[in-house]
């Protein structure tokens, strides 16, 4: 493992030599490591499996064993994969999409379409979805089987657009997070209703985990209801709840009483502090 943070290098060759010299390197993080000129670095490794790169670095990656790429979206894409394979997992966050071109958005969407496992935020998805000014259809994410997504309650309106783009999704981890937009912080909670059923709920979805770092009982229950009532092959639904004691028992009773499309679905209610 190599973690390079807030380092300065006189040139790219120095950093590249440091990385290539680690002959059994499997995990690499480059966080705010800056070279004087240029900021493009060549990452060549026959053993590297995971790389995490920051916005201060543009990496050209030649790592045939790479399994996971962690990066953040900005005005540009901060990586290029030069070998024929692409990592199975992409964890893509967002710094700023101000001024990002439609070509960059399409490039990122094309990369998402190649992975099996995706970690993404609703803010990034909404920005990309709305940033396609041409109105052309989104590329389907046919390879995607595992999705880990964080959503605010105000962005749940675009949840079905994301799920509809994942026709073979089998596992979904969905986390409700605190709203950070000043505009939305003073708005009343939205009425969450899902008018359409994403195709993956009917054809492939087997596991759903719902997490929440906020207490929004009605919205959480609406999400549970959406998945239980529309997923005929769902095998397990896990709900992480802040509630304990009698409140937890009451919620469990309500969950068990909900109509479900899959008679084999197991429901787990877990307490998180």
TrEMBL record:
Species name: Microthlaspi erraticum
All residue ranges annotated as the FBD domain in the record: 199-270
Entry protein name: FBD domain-containing protein
